[in-house]
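Re: beginner question about structure tokens

> Can someone show what the tokenized structure looks like for a real chain? I only ever see the sequence side.

Sure, here's an example I had lying around. Input first:
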Amino acid sequence: MNHGKLSRFLTDEFIDLQSARIAGDKLKRISAPWSQSEKFLLNLALHLFNERHKVNLSDMDYLDPHNKSLAFEALRLRFG
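And the corresponding structure tokens:
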């Protein structure tokens, strides 16, 4: 929600909160040309929503300090 590029996809086309569904495959296709850090943040968000979406935490090395802070905040929100 706090990432410029990712926040543009917080729409009904990709996310249905009422039925707890997310168009993960569609989002991954759209993200193909994105940077490694943007893809990591998307994969992390998908994983935090539903663990069937896998994420490699070692890819956090791609993140700058701001995006690393966003990732840690997302983890705190999900796991307390």
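Each token stands for a local structural state, so reading them left to right follows the chain. The beta strands are 15-16, 21-22.
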